[in-house]
């Protein structure tokens, strides 16, 4: 006889099967074309990654991924419906088809990639846990932090990573735990700790909130791996390819020096790589069901990866995050895109 | 005989027993202990008020467009100023805001018309407010008809969304609540048990759970291609949740009406609906005004919970604005603004309910 537990299990299995079957058939590309807009899931506000600006338009590094896909698929980077999602509902929204791309600073992990029926298409930001110290301390590396009082936000993996790092390096630290990021900044500001730790992308945003941002600096050390990237549903390889190559096109654009300003002139370039990228030599969009000028649309409307980075989180933005590991592979970073040919 | 006595002119009471000085002496400086407490109280008030006024007004920045216009010595209302349109309309397209303005104007006109006793045609205005206006508002806000461009609901937000959620919640919850309350007191076992189960279920789960179920679980149950709009899901969840609370408030009012009232009405040969509609409910609802308004105010504030399902209500849009990297670090200004807006609406509701109580007061007050 079935007991209650079994019934619940059966019911949830049924729900998951229905969800799985339901999301498998229709082509996301066709749906997007007939809708005339890309359904894109973004965060409900994360500095530099996705937030509405003064005029109510979404801006950010994650937002630019959505815009790139819209430019590639529909030829118009503005043809995006942004759905703001919180951390809990983001995967459900993607699974249920409410959004077609999840571009919401989501860390690529085995569990998420293999058990949720989702696929990570790449990495648009290599994040990791870092440290912010006040410049008075005269510290230049995390290895000098032995015995430091460290401000952390409670209940995050940050706390765990920190303990692991200090144990592995045989150092001591004095944790000072706060509930919210605002309190954490407050604690750092009031001098209750020498060091504040969080993901490097967040540290920059926290630093701006100090009364005197120049009195604090972010150490170059990164103690955890947090590769953030866009996610799509499993089972639609065409769409997976489109999102994956939209990001690659932005990276290749930077590598070959194609920017939103010079994309038009670069179409006449003699460089065969540039000609292939911008659709002047062969049609590399065909395999994805796109026009030959798909990458040209991305680069002319959204810009290359470097432009997007500097505009949203880099030196042209208030966050002033260094390129660091997010620089191109030939400039000392990890960002590497397969060639378009 | 008193004819030789002149009548003393009526004179005002001495200044030691009336007027501000006497009031101060009687209430604040009445003996040494009270004097000390008064002085301590005044000092604490001074410590609180002076920095607040300095922060909010004297050292505050009012004009400008970017964070560079903020001196950081006091509040920087430049932030609220730059984001004001967004706080009111959310991410509604700027070129279409006139449509939202018409709805706002209609909304407040109808409310004022219904609230001010002098104005005529109350019944027709009420019918229009409940039947016609929602359709007009929907057509205007959502568009897609009469060449109006479509504005999907995920672009709605700010105060507009807060008012929408609260109004639909209130207007929907009251009738459902009345029906449920009557059903729970019914003698018919099926109706009664349905109402009991419904009320106890919705009262037994937190609103956050309801909203999460509506936004996270519901889409998984529905077949693909059928997606119910996020806002509609939140509205249904909110209305059902509030109607359960409303039902219990109204049931409390029904129970306060002496049984004789209903029996007398029955003896006159009135049907059930006449007894309820003409005798019991009018008395019960009148007594329940504080309770009903209490539920409304709490609903109005509960609407901020839709933030967790990614809808930008007034508080949600303030938080989203705070995460713009160009405006980091102005959370105090943002939250003070949101609190002020909420206070205006809640306080008005509270005052109106007090006025209504006085107006309908016909001898039940104890």
UniProtKB/TrEMBL annotation, chain A:
It comes from Vreelandella nigrificans. Keywords: Signal, Transport. Residues 37-266 form the Solute-binding protein family 3/N-terminal domain. It comes from the Bacteria. SUPFAM superfamilies: Periplasmic binding protein-like II. GO terms for biological process: amino acid transport. SMART domains: PBPb. Gene3D superfamilies: Periplasmic binding protein-like II (3.40.190.10). Residues 1-24 form the signal peptide. Belongs to the bacterial solute-binding protein 3 family. Pfam families: SBP_bac_3. This is Amino acid ABC transporter substrate-binding protein.
From TrEMBL, chain B:
The chain crosses the membrane at residues 36-62, 98-116, 123-141, 161-182, 194-222, 276-297, 304-322, 334-352. Its main location: membrane. Residues 159-353 form the ABC transmembrane type-1 domain. Gene3D superfamilies: MetI-like (1.10.3720.10). The keyword Membrane applies. PANTHER family: INNER MEMBRANE AMINO-ACID ABC TRANSPORTER PERMEASE PROTEIN YHDY (PTHR30614:SF41), MEMBRANE COMPONENT OF AMINO ACID ABC TRANSPORTER (PTHR30614). Belongs to the binding-protein-dependent transport system permease family. HisMQ subfamily. This is Amino acid ABC transporter permease.
